[in-house]
Design brief:
Strand order of the largest sheet: 2-3-1-14-23-15-17-16
Radius of gyration: 35 Å
Mean pLDDT: 81
Shape: elongated
Strand content: 15-25%
């Protein structure tokens, strides 16, 4: 039934608009417009229906920066470059570990020649750390016999004398190997049963490490023979891993255990070491022959057992990954919600201001432009929902910019319409000429922006790709709505006499400015600004580059209420006391937070744990941390009722079969939300730290929680086999642990290799954009001078933006009231550079197209031709820039800290792009297109006139 409903809905969206269009055209007696009206109605129906459906059914896919989550980049170790088949196997194995059920929206893809990128939405920093532990494991499982004094005395004596990890025989094969015990399991290898095993202690990374000697056997039982692994419980009701072998593995395991059965009536037993990823987890006694099934026990939490099972079922990785990610981005969901709210407000305001301006300035034509804009935005959203493209923060910024850029095409048409009417053309002829003569320039102007969007998508990160997709769709669809939709509406309105004239305001009338005379002044001004900016960039050095390009760590810290800090004080404390290199501190706010409570701290130090530890040390209790409040702590009765446990003794041992009887339950309220797995893991660690018995029976519940849910909640109910006073002790320890761990809502780590790759990509992107536009303009205008002039203007715009970013470091104080921060160049700012490259060429093409039209068949371009062309297009150049500038100003003022740097670059670039189209590109074109010898001839003529 659901499929039939969907099919009928699709049919209605496709068929009904054309039926209505045909009927409406007949009613209006415009039969030849039936299919045209149908196309307009179809785009409106498609955009609104799919967008409404997507929002209603929660089909909007958001990026990490909006929904919260983690992006981890791992390097394949070694010099070998994996081919496509090996990389596919590696991605498949990692996917089984990270997303074993296949229900999460996890993205794992190749990045470069020997890197993989893992994108996991809606996880916090604790969950991201857990994922790191799963991913970095090799998944290598071994079963080895522990060396003992009874059977391996000589081997043990030799091993204790040598420093080597492996003891080898004359043939080079290893005979015994020192294996480190998994941290936390050291107590499992003490007692009477482990007295005869060989052990030694070594200091590794400043920490003592217990190592046990295991011996080589002929059976070589490894995880290669596993058929399955599952979560289970051992005889003490603690979580354990159950595993099963295939026939070959069962035979080998049976041989290994049967040859090491108890001796002397059971007084001596061999220890079977269970080794995973080169760590010894446990070593139970072999009591009988074991063939196809067994269990791995230890002091595991449920989360650890689940992770082990996922790793074992996925199998060993076909290649070794770096122990920790070379790049890491973690964003909390709270930041995502605030970012969505701020960006949505900015887009909403921009979406109101631009249409108001268009309606007030162009009257009926403005109303048509606004209708075309609505169709444009709806179709963008509908297509992104249909193809499941992710909405990212930069993508929302791109959507907002589309609002300003989409009406630019309408402005080109309307200003041309004004010209046609001023020449005395009838309204019908003026409409036809305006749309026909601007179609070419609209296509030329927008193709350059599409080139920038494609380059952005190719080189961009996951967030930047969202910006590229929104930009590409917006520009492509704006050509359709401005040229097709608007023309259909205009022609129908004129033919039915709904409009008899095109009334418009005209703030900028006909001008006669000698722009070329000002070229020496303007170019000198540009050179001075660029020289000062480049000097500032040189002085700042790597300080002008964000961690995207240098490598390093970015951490967001939140101070407790009442502990607000001054930015300068935080910068001084982090730089002098924490002793972190290349520190940049900027304030940030979420919602209605007071200024001075939240800061973003960037440093070139590439060890994230070291940075967080240093911040914890210098700020300590001032930082926000989680905590819990316990209420309704009660004993779980065997039969009926519950009674308060505070001050009372636990109930007698129950006689019922209820496994929870005699335990306790309570309600927990956390200061900050926490998810189930992290809570369970933290609780079980608190139990161990408090020295309480690990019963293995504990359960956390929430009305909105279901198995596997990674959502975080601030209220949980707990029931445990622990007695009430023991549960209270464990929860007190848990509260203490939570308060001792500061809350870092966002963390970003960029490794040196990733940063170097980002630098190359950014350079390639800028170069590729310039080259593509040079070739396109060369072909389109049939002269290389047009392309070279445009590229000179683009280089000028990029240098001006770089100068502004560099000088922002010194302008923070005097211009701080304008939200000017010590901005740094990052990947989103490069996205702004590329957008401005496309936008600046857009303005330049408008001027160049008019120069070509005015020149006609004249043999050369003269200053008079250039001045006339710039004056004729001045109105449309300034108005198109104004609509984009309006949006960029809103983004800069209201878009939030996350996109302020990008908005700053766009703000400078929009002004610079408009300026360069008039004062740089046009004069350079005049100079490049000047015929050889013209300068000498003019000089001779001038000398003759003086004489």
């Amino acid at each position: 039934m659901e499929k039939l409903t969907t099919l009928l809905s699709v049919a209605a969206v496709v068929v009904v608009p054309f039926v209505v269009g045909t009927l409406l055209a007949r009613r209006l007696r415009l039969a030849d417009y039936g299919w045209k009206i149908g196309v307009v109605l179809f785009t409106l129906a498609f955009g609104s229906t799919v967008t409404y459906w997507g929002w209603r059914h929660d089909r909007i896919r958001t990026g990490i920066d909006l929904s919260g989550g983690a992006i981890l980049v791992y390097q394949v170790m070694g010099d070998k470059v994996l081919d496509t088949a090996d990389m596919d196997r590696l991605i498949a194995a990692v996917s089984l570990r990270v997303n074993p059920g296949g229900v999460k929206e996890v993205t794992i893809r190749r990045l470069g020649d020997n890197q993989i990128e893992i994108i996991v939405p809606k996880v916090d920093e604790a969950e991201a750390a857990r994922l790191e532990n799963i991913i970095s494991r090799t998944g290598k499982l071994e079963f080895r016999i522990l060396a003992d004094q009874r059977h391996h005395a000589e081997l043990i004596e030799r091993a204790l004398k040598e420093e080597a990890r492996e003891i080898r025989g004359d043939d080079g094969q290893w005979l015994a190997r020192w294996t480190p015990v998994k941290p936390g399991e050291e107590n499992s290898f003490v007692g009477e049963g482990y007295r005869g095993i060989a052990r030694r202690e070594r200091t590794i990374d400043g920490k003592p490490r217990l190592e046990i000697l295991v011996v080589r056997d002929n059976y070589n039982v490894t995880g290669d023979y596993l058929t399955s692994a599952s979560v289970g419980t051992d005889r003490n009701l603690r979580p354990c891993v159950n595993f099963a072998f295939n026939a070959n593995g069962a035979e080998r395991f049976g041989g290994l255990t049967s040859s090491h059965l108890p001796e002397q009536g059971g007084q001596f037993t061999y220890k079977l070491g269970i080794i995973l990823d080169n760590f010894l987890y446990s070593a139970p006694s072999i009591q009988s022959t074991i063939t196809d099934r067994g269990e791995i026990t230890g002091s595991f939490t449920k989360a650890e057992v689940t992770d082990l099972v996922n790793v074992l079922n996925a199998g060993a990785l076909p290649a070794t990954l770096s122990e920790s990610p070379i790049s890491k981005l973690v964003i909390g969901p709270t930041l995502g919600r605030d970012t969505i709210e701020r960006s949505s407000n900015a887009i909403l305001i921009a979406s109101i201001l631009v249409p108001i301006f268009m309606l007030g300035y162009y009257r009926f034509a403005g109303m048509v432009a606004n209708l075309a804009l609505i169709i444009n935005v709806l179709c963008i959203l509908a297509i992104m929902i249909t193809v499941k493209a992710a909405f990212t923060l930069a993508g929302l910024a791109g959507l907002a910019l589309t609002v300003g850029m989409a009406v630019d095409n309408n402005v080109l048409v309307y200003e041309r319409l004004r010209e046609e009417l001023a020449r005395g053309a009838s309204l019908r002829m003026a409409i036809r000429n305006a749309f026909a003569r601007t179609s070419t320039v609209i296509i030329d102007a927008n193709v350059t922006t599409l080139i920038s969007a494609v380059v952005l998508y190719v080189i961009g990160s996951d967030q930047v790709k969202g910006f590229a997709v929104a930009l590409f769709l917006g520009v492509a669809l704006s050509m359709f709505t401005a040229v097709w939709v608007a023309r259909v509406i205009f022609e129908v309105a004129e033919r039915k006499q709904w409009i008899t004239e095109a009334k418009m305001l005209q703030l900028i009338g006909q001008t006669n400015i000698d722009f070329m005379r000002l070229f020496p002044i303007t170019v000198s001004l540009s050179i001075v600004v660029i020289v000062i900016g480049m000097a500032g960039l040189f002085i700042r050095g790597t300080n002008a580059l964000d961690i995207d390009f240098t490598g390093g760590v970015s951490v967001q810290v939140v101070f407790k209420q009442g502990q607000e800090q001054d930015t300068a004080a935080v910068r001084k404390t982090v730089g002098e006391q924490a002793k972190l290199p290349d520190v940049v501190v900027s304030d940030a706010r979420v919602g209605d937070e007071p200024l001075g409570r939240r800061f973003v701290i960037n440093t070139s130090e590439q060890d994230l744990e070291k940075v967080e530890a240093a911040l914890k040390e210098v700020f300590g209790a001032k930082l926000e941390a989680n905590s819990l409040t316990v209420s309704e702590l009660k004993v779980i009765e065997a039969a009926t009722g519950e009674k308060a446990a505070e001050g009372e003794k636990p109930a007698e041992a129950p006689t019922s079969a209820d496994p929870w009887a005699g335990g306790a339950r309570a309600k927990l309220v956390f200061h900050l939300p926490i998810n189930h797995d992290n809570l369970l893991d933290a609780f079980q660690k608190a139990v161990r730290q408090a020295g309480l018995p690990d019963t293995g029976l504990v359960e956390f519940s929430n009305p909105n929680y279901s198995e596997g849910d990674q959502g975080a909640y601030d209220q949980w109910s707990v029931r445990s086999k622990l007695a009430p006073e023991q549960l209270q002790t464990a929860l007190t320890q848990l509260n203490s642990d939570l308060q001792a761990s500061p809350y870092f809502p966002a963390a970003n780590k960029i490794g040196g290799a990733v940063a170097a790759n980002t630098q190359r990509q950014a350079l390639y992107a800028l170069t590729a954009s310039w080259a593509c536009m040079l070739v396109y303009l060369w072909i389109r205008f049939q002269g290389v001078a047009f392309g070279l002039a445009a590229v000179v203007a683009l280089i000028h715009d990029v240098l001006i933006m770089l100068s502004a970013v560099a000088l922002s470091y010194w302008l923070t104080g005097p211009l701080g009231f304008l939200n000017v921060d010590p901005f740094k160049i990052n990947l989103t700012m490069v996205a702004a550079f590329l957008l401005i490259i496309g936008y600046s060429v857009n303005d330049t093409i408008i001027v160049f197209d008019r120069i070509r039209e005015v020149r006609g068949k004249l043999p050369a371009i003269t200053p008079e031709i250039v001045n006339q062309s710039v004056n004729q297009t001045l109105s449309r150049t300034l108005i198109t820039s104004f609509t984009v500038l309006l949006v960029v100003l809103v983004l800069y003022a209201l878009g939030g800290e996350a996109i302020r740097g990008m908005a700053f670059a766009l703000l400078i670039g929009t002004v610079s792009g408009t300026y360069s189209s008039i004062y740089i590109a046009a004069p350079v074109l005049l100079w490049l297109a000047k015929p050889k010898g013209e300068g000498k001839a003019r000089g001779a003529a001038a000398a003759a006139s003086e004489n």
